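histidine kinase, pasting as requested.
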Amino acid sequence: MQIRMQSLFLIHGIIAFFAVLFLPKALAAIIVVLLFFVIFWLSKKNNEQKNYDKNTQTIMRNTIRMPEDVDIYNLLDALPDSLFLLDNKNDIVFLNQTASKTFSRVVNGQNYITRFRAPELVNAVRRCQQMHQSVTVEYLDKKNNETFFIVLFVPLGGGQTLCLFRDRTETRRLERMRTDFIANASHELRTPLTSLRGFIETIRGPAKDDADTRDKFLTIMQDQAERMSRLIDDLLSLSRLEMKTGLDIQETVNFNLVLTHVVETLTPLAKQMGVVLALDLPSKTLFVQGRRDDLIQLFQNLIENACKYGQQGGKVDISVVDHKVNVELTVRDYGPGISEEHIPRLTERFYRVNAEVSRLHKGTGLGLAIVKHILSLHHGRLIVHSTLGEGSKFKVILPLKEHE
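Structure tokens follow.
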């Protein structure tokens, strides 16, 4: 902040006048001398600040190589990353608007090292200043909602340092999801492979001449092989869906026809489980925009899950409501229900409320993750309501498309 020196001279002059007029001469003389030194010091500081700002602009302009008519500070304020400019004492002399919002308690004049006491940041800025070269470090700000930053320190002229905080929290989250996905997929594939290896060794050894045991083990091996096949199919489906950023084929799909087809296809499976599928469709034919195969998989995953996990209820209701702008599909089972704490995580890959029950029903743990991605591609959404002991409702909302 620049000081208005003319106003200060006027104020101090008035104070000196009244001091001479009303105070003893000795005291008035002391006050006048003190005022002189205060004015001299403030004048010096003001000139230093002007020169400092001018030098800072010049240094940064030369470093960034910007034209003379460009305001560097306005440019830095527009950056999406948090930026700090430190002087040779590591005091913060400038922070852009992003930094002010991200680090709300940081203000100009604070010492950077005192404010950011993290060893990795302190060591990085010192290395940058000592070696006169850029330094990059990772920093997890636990006080700021576990925000993960990549921090860049750049040495400027005059002992100044440029400090840039780039938020990489979302990137890190996605990397962790990818790592967890690979680890979970490897684990899911390893389990049936281990079983197959064990049964093969048994058939070749102790059960070599035991026909009954061999047939029993071969049946189990077939189940394990089918489990692997289902898992690989779901992994490929999920991978295919994740590679898409939007609908690559703009089909107009008959919603009623596709849903009826899925219900008819799953009716034999439902009968084997002792479950009755009850479909309630509106008289009006509804159309949505998307891929027919994806919608078939979406409906199939939801209805099949309801049959498996709501089996004890003996019935699954499938109802459709036309809301003019969108269509609402509800798949309702009368099973044991799902605890509230599990609901937000149901669409995570390999997340299971009950791993043993899931394996009993030959689930891969990817069904609802696939549903989530299909809905994302079709601009739809999934809403889950469940009460323990009463069953679950899975609602799908999709935008309707006018059909001539």
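Note for the archive: The domain at 247-404 is CATH 3.30.565.10 (Heat Shock Protein 90).
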